[in-house]
Amino acid sequence: MLNPTPRVRFAPSPTGLLHVGNARTALYNWLFARHTGGEFLLRIEDTDVERSEARYEAQLIEDLRWLGLDWTEGPQIGGPYAPYRQSERLEIYQQHTEQLLGEDKAYRCFCTAEELEQERQLALREQRAQVYSGKCRALAANQAQTRAAAGETFAVRLAVPDAPLRFHDIVRGDVEFAGETVSDFILVRSSGMPVYNYVVTIDDALMRITHVIRGDDHISNTPRQVAIYQAFGWSLPEFAHLSTILGSDRERLSKRHGATSIASFREMGILPQALANYLALLGWGAEGGTRETFTREELIAEFKLERVTPSPAVFDWDKLHWLNRHAIKQAPPAELRQLAWPYFTARQWLPPLSPEDAAVVQWFARVLDLFLPAVDQLQQLPEKAAALWNLAPVTQEDAALLASEAGERVVRAFTAKIRAEAGAMTPQRFKELMNEVKAETGAKGKDLFHPVRIILTGAHSGPEFDKLIPLLEEGSQLDLPTHVLSVRERVEAFSATVL
Ligand code: GLU
Q: Is domain 333-497 classified as CATH 3.90.1330.10?
């Protein structure tokens, strides 16, 4: 028999932001589907009504799209197995519960919370596993029905056969759990709400999921899900449980380790292709190589679940930054402009991006050429380029340098020369003037350049004058929310405040 078309799903709970671990799960599912010519669907697991919020669902979808993932079935777009939100599928679950009760594969449990707690305490004292005794399994079906009809509340439990529960995991191999470790667990709470293990299994089966790829925090849930597949007589999908992601201290990655949400990476100016590349490497490697940079197409071509490692992956900022710098080098200028621009409008340094404003767009392209090689994240750009808009306050050390006899000589000669110039400064002319200052003062090297740089930018280090000067001169001609001072204006501003 031919294998069916692979079908995989990403099934997030909309109870918070999308984080590194879940984003990696989504990416691996997507890559697997793309690699195998299969289908990738999105299902929203919102049966926890207290914690689920529509805004998280919206944000999640936005984050997945930003990361470059797409799906052919899901909430909003629908599909052959709709609805794709669990809160809209309660009737389906209920029908399945009727079926299981009718076939005696599940039973009503009337035990109260206190009774269950007493049972637990007793098991604890007797050093037995603290699992449900199965007391209500013995109730005759008609008796249970009568109690239910009389209004007594009940949970529904699965009658789990006393046999090992086995499944195959592509990452870990064959896995087996003893039946009694699972016991007769709850499918539907006394509130009427079905539990995660139950609904996830029904949905995966009805949606014809062939491969369940998810975080290994779910591995202990899997035997319960296997028991449910068996109760319905459904065949098992393949499983692939992805390893835990650790922080640099080798503790499970969490908020304590700083930003881990996809939204925060986007805000920092990590490029989506860099993050996708990085997440792909968190627990997977291409065959026979140490290669680390991959385009999306290369990832699709190379990705195999068999190459996913069971050992934990450690989140490494240096590597993410390295991949981000690589992605910045590869990205088309228009994309970088689009991504970088908002950091400058936020500071009121640039107007909102308008492609018709060709002069500003071209000038900013050169600002980017100059400063992009110096950043790990796009959000660092304004700080790197700050000298264009702001003169940094002169430090005490630099002030002392300017006040020294040699420093002062350079300052006087330089400011006088700039003031005597008419028209815009060019790098060529600037060089000539610097040579004149050098000849007149006898200063050279950093004794010559540091004072001049402090006058022009407020700091004694920064980009080459050849590149900086045209940006200052041309920037000063543009109509920007914060004016860029020309060389001449800088000399005047310096004289007014420092001299
Ligand atoms: N809603 C579950 C989660 O977000 C999905 C687990 C699964 O993929 O089965 O962890």
A: no
